[in-house]
Amino acid sequence: MNPEQFELTAEQRHVADLARDIARGEIAPFVAQWDRDGTFPRELYTKLAQAGMMGILIPEEFGGAGAGYVAYALAIEELARVDAGAAVTLSVHSMICSAIERLGSPSQRKRWLPLLATGDCIAGFALTESEVGSDAANLRATARRDGDGYVLNGRKQWCTNGSYAAVVMSMFRTGGPGAHGISAFLVEGAAPGMSVERVTEKLGIHTSNTCDLAFDGVRVPAEALLGEEGAGFVGALTALTGGRIGIAAQAVGILAACLDESVAFAKDRMAFGKPIGAFEGVSFKIAQMATDLDAARLLVYRAASLADAGKPFAVEASKAKLFASTAARKHASEALQIHGGYGYTTEFPVERHYRDAKITEIYEGTSEIQQIVIARSLLGKIESL
To answer: Cα–Cα distance between 254 and 273 in angstroms, integer?
Structure first.
């Protein structure tokens, strides 16, 4: 099943077509070199903004496309089909845009959303700390009330878009222990006392920027508080729930690319006098890959459709991310196997898809976290869960 076979609106098809054209014309010719050099293609996001992609979840009144989550998922998939790094950059940016639109004050929405829609600004996310990953409710970075503002101190790890972000949604402890002591802030990237301590070297998604951010006495006004004080953890989880649709769509894009490459190679590569696709050892891998791709797409489209309808979608987003990320990792390995020794070289893109796929099982909530969400929706919160 291709996206074209799903019942999409004219606007959604237009978004998918635009994203596909940009991916093929502006990314595909350069992505191998970007991947080798670890290049963050900043100019790409200006081009995506001109096509309405950077404001895809931002309402039209703030200069965005207001196209909704299905269109967002389609755009992420098309980008990830060529470059998973560009896809996650847009995904996290859009996740923060959505959080500001839902949780922000009128002045925050008026200030940031138009800038984020135009691509003049990229949004970043800072939650994880060196000793706090999935157990985010125990974060240690602090925000101390001081006069008419706050003073931020602490270290954040694995901050997506952090080196290039004009605004970073970051969580700090404003109260006692646990989730209710955490607040969310919109911190300007140029704020005095905020610095990039380290750019993370990663297995894959080399075109995505990931860094450690230091907050040393960063003074922010009270207006930087996103939502109510003490509600930041809930705000972060809300943002991540929407972000899981994006990561699931990223995984779908990686999987689709693996299928494309595998089919092409299986038709052209000859062994024992015939194309390797004629052998069940190869053809059955491709059949399962195609089946899992369809299933992953449908799960993503269902979660996105529920989000667009204003209905609960947290469990559906978790199911989509769990299945799509597992399938992407599994079939990236199978695609490499189909390519044999060629797949292990940089001459073919499957080695990059193989490296990129794994992270989809980790960020925006690990597969284990998704299983907890799904299990609790069925069993409730019991001692073993």
So the answer is: 31
What Rg, from alpha-carbon coordinates, does the chain have? 21
Q: Which CATH architecture has domain 234-379?
A: Up-down Bundle (1.20)
**How many Cα atoms sit within 13 Å of 295 on the Cβ side?**
15
pLDDT at 385: 47
Instruction: Give the residue from 344, 351, 340, 348 showing the smallest Cα distance to 282.
Output: 340
CATH classification (class only), 124-230 = mainly beta
> What's the average model confidence in pLDDT over 10-39?
97
Is 334 labeled as catalytic in the residue annotation? no
How is residue 72 written in tokens? 């967002």
Pinpoint the residues of the chain covered by CATH 1.10.540.10. Answer: 3-121
Residues of the chain with CATH 1.20.140.10: 234-379
pLDDT confidence band for 238 (50 / 70 / 90): confident
Assess contact for 209 and 168: CB atoms under 8 A: no
Mean pLDDT of 273-291: 98
Residue pair 326/367 in contact (Cβ under 8 Å)? The answer is yes
Cα distances from 98 to residues 188, 236, 237, 257, 340, in angstroms, run 17, 11, 12, 28, 42
Do residues 327 and 320 lie in contact, with contact meaning Cβ atoms separated by under 8 Å? no
Among 11, 364, 368, 383, the one annotated catalytic: 364
Beta-strand relationship, 182-188 and 194-199: unpaired
Handedness of CA 36, 40, 43, 44 (dihedral sign): positive
Rounded CA separation 275/273 (Å): 7
DSSP 171-190: EEE-SSSSGGGEEEEEEETT
Altogether, the residues listed in the chain come to a count of 385
Report pLDDT for 240.
Answer: 87
Task: Please tell me the distance from the alpha carbon of residue 180 to that of residue 32, in angstroms, as a whole number.
Answer: 45
The pTM of the full predicted model, rounded to 2 decimals, is 0.96
